[in-house]
Amino acid sequence: MAAVLSVAYARAAGPSDTPGPLADLNRFRQVFYGSLSARADALFELTDAMLCAGGPVTSLVELTLMGEHRRGHGAMYDALNAGRVEPARLRRALASLPLPRAADGRIVLAVDVSPWLRPDAATSGERLFCHVHGRGKGNAQMIPGWPYSFVAALETGRTSWTAVLDAVRLGQADDATAVTATQLRGVVDRLVTAGQWKPGDPDIVIVADSGYDITRLAHVLADLPVELVGRLRGDRVLRLPKPPRLPGTTGRPPRHGPEIALDTPATWPPPEHMTSTDTTRYGTAVATSWDRVHPRLTRRGCWIDHDGELPVIEGTLIRLQVDHLPGDRNPKPVWLWTSATGATTADVDRWWQAFLRRFDLEHTFRLFKQTLGWTAPKIRTPDAADRWTWLIIAAHTQLRLARPLAEDLRRPWERPARPGRLTPARVRRAFRNIRATTTLPASAPKPSRPGPGRPPGSRNRRPAPRYDVGKTVKRDRTLTARPERTG
């Protein structure tokens, strides 16, 4: 589902604006090179080779044959295995770049997890079982791999561009929601430090899918200037606000109101707001909202160690229904929950339209994997995987900065793209020409001779260790799981 969300690119492309994007690109390339504190020349040229390749990246060794990579394949593998990338410096640089904003100056962020699947890499450590959607309904699978949590700023309308701001690999002992909360807090703090958000500006909108505990995120990030919007499962049961206490009533006052079951219309009270929007692809989109709806928390899971009384986390519940979807004439409604209360009809429309823009992040994941070759290398160690991931993010950021500078080098069978509507893949075609006008901080390689390596016919006396897949730390889920105190 897509709708019209007015988000404008922070810098419009035009002939008079050419020095601006080129200066931004050169500055980022200098910062990127400075963040490579070991094997900097090899890692920088590897990124340039990835950007200038004529087609999808299928293997790392093929990139060493590019003219932009002046070193051998041994230097490339040594850089990935023993190099060093400073993510903190890159994160600060990404937060200071021009970002897409809404018509009212609001920043819209999306958070999602994408796995790097490694099912046959028994010697690769810190792998988890990653949820992968199969073809058809109910064909999801759990495949070993490295899951990465990404945060990106969203652009306007139907587009395949996003501004990736952060990436974190989820470890075997990590709580995904806790890691996401820390990640989002870091992104927002860096945006505030960079001057992207100032007191008095509209709150930053953060959208997430149903895999996140959106109410817990809202509670943890309540001190930040953010509005969280997340999707709920269609079988959830929430609570309405408690009714007013009548005079003369005795007994303990209730903390929660009546239940509202999302799959039982009989439990739905009259809505606070109802809006209708005409879309070009999905017919009429009807949004219905209820104010001050909250879940009833219990002392289990993440709330088992909460001190004091459990909080009541109120927000706005939204039900979105469209006429049709591509290939589906009877779409199911989408249920959303946002951390803000007292919403207006304009707020409701802005929230569900911002949520629909979250799917643009899937285009970025597909570009990472199918074009830039994020998951193509058979890297053994998770540290090397983290370095390669940050090289991918740096390459994608350079494509975004080179967007106003790129010409449409279309194939004869492709349609011409409108100005400012080049896809990341088309910008990549022109990056080799753009690279010639940018700064090239990497120094020329020094001549050397390869080492002797292991003698032919000898056996490997130090085989790589093998690692189990999955969580390594067990957590108590209920109070009954705690050991009883004696004495």
What topology does this entry show?
Layout: E1 7-8, H1 19-34, E2 36-38, H2 40-52, H3 60-63, H4 73-82, E3 84-85, H5 87-96, E4 101-102, E5 108-117, E6 128-132, E7 141-154, E8 162-169, H6 176-193, E9 204-208, H7 214-220, E10 226-232, E11 237-239, E12 259-261, E13 273-279, E14 283-293, E15 315-322, E16 334-338, H8 345-356, H9 360-371, H10 382-401, H11 424-429, H12 431-435
Parallel strand pairs: 5-9, 9-10
Antiparallel strand pairs: 1-4, 2-3, 5-7, 6-7, 7-8, 10-16, 11-12, 13-14, 14-15, 15-16
Helix pairs in contact: 2-4, 2-10
Distance between the termini: 60 Å
Give the helix tally.
Answer: 12
Number of strands: 16
Average pLDDT level: 88
Biggest beta sheet attributes: 10 strands, mixed
- Determine the strand fraction and express it as a percent band: 15-25%
Helix content: 25-40%
User: Which of globular, elongated, flat, extended, rod-shaped describes the shape?
Assistant: globular
Structural class: alpha+beta
Give the C-alpha Rg. Answer: 25 Å
Order of helices and strands: EHEHHHEHEEEEEHEHEEEEEEEHHHHH
Poorly predicted parts: 1-18, 478-487
